[in-house]
Amino acid sequence: MFARGPILRDRELTLRPLRFRDRDIWMQVRRVNRDWLTPWEATRPDLDSDGPLPSYFGMVAFQNQEMKAGRSYSFGLWISDQGNERFIGQVTLGGIVMGAYRGGYIGYWIDQRFAGRGFTTRAVVAVTEFAFSQLQLHRIEINLRPENEASRKVAEKAGYIYEGLRPRYLHIDGDWRDHSTFVRENPGI
Predict the structure, then answer these.
(1) At 155, is the pLDDT very low, low, confident or very high (cuts 50, 70, 90)?
(2) How many domains does the structure of the chain reveal?
(3) Which of 10, 36, 39, 51 is placed for a possible disulfide with 47 were both Cys, Cβ 3.0 to 4.6 Å?
(4) ∠ CA 147-104-5 to the nearest 5 degrees?
(5) 129 domain-assigned
(6) Is 26 inside a domain boundary?
(7) Are the CB atoms for 73 and 4 separated by under 8 Å?
(8) pLDDT in tens, 27-36
(9) How many Å apart are CA 79 and CA 55, to the nearest integer?
(10) Is the pTM higher than 0.90?
(11) Does residue 126 register a pLDDT over 90?
């Protein structure tokens, strides 16, 4: 559908699939934000916290494979400042199922130095519009930990409506955690 993946833009914010050559900046931003992100990050119950995770290259290769199959679209968030691009986070439209469901979910994270400035909300809106207009999805969910007030604000500002609580929904930060589910439906379908 897209040669190298879709590129979405909103003023100085660009969303594009990560590339192998983005490794160093991705690793640097993740390292700086480790403590900020750990309470909200998915973990694998079959691995201890020191267990092997895919390499950056494995992650990007998997994301590219999933995008080509139409099952997931993962975007790096970049802001332009006087001609320079700066990596600030990531948003993923994943778990895409067509057929009678025609839906998926959105997950996101942002560099703490850029939090609270509207970039994440704008990215979620851009990905939602892409999902509704280009992919013709009917329903998108955002599942977040109830205590994550900042993430809840992103979902609400992006037009998502609280649907309910899912007990022990995802393995996050080493345990099964409850999640609040926010939903947006495509008015055009």
Answers:
(1) very high
(2) 1
(3) 51
(4) 110
(5) yes
(6) yes
(7) no
(8) 999 999 999 9
(9) 25
(10) yes
(11) yes
- Specify the amino acid at residue 132: F
Residue 3 lies in a domain: no
pLDDT digits (tens, 9 = 90+) for 85-98: 999 999 999 999 99
Residues 152 and 144: beta-carbon distance below 8 Å = yes
Domain CATH for 154: 3.40.630.30
Distance from C-alpha of 82 to C-alpha of 112, rounded to nearest angstrom: 21
Residue 42 within any structural domain of the chain: yes
Taking CA atoms, 8 is separated from 14, 18, 61, 108, 186, in Å, by 6, 13, 20, 15, 19
Q: How many CB atoms are closer than 10 A to CB 131? A: 23
- Amino acid identity, residue 14? T
- Mean pLDDT across the stretch 33-56? 78
Question: In the predicted model, what is the mean pLDDT of the chain?
Answer: 93
Q: Which domain holds residue 54?
A: 8-185
Number of Cβ within 10 Å of residue 17's Cβ equals 18
- Is the pLDDT confidence value at 21 over 70? yes
DSSP labels for the chain? --SS---EEETTEEEE---GGGHHHHHHHHHHTHHHHGGG-B--TTS-TTS----HHHHHHHHHHHHHTTS-EEEEEEEEETTEEEEEEEEEEEEEE-TTT-EEEEEEEE-GGGTTSSHHHHHHHHHHHHHHHTS--SEEEEEE-TT-HHHHHHHHHTT-EEEEEEEEEEEETTEEEEEEEEEEE-TT-
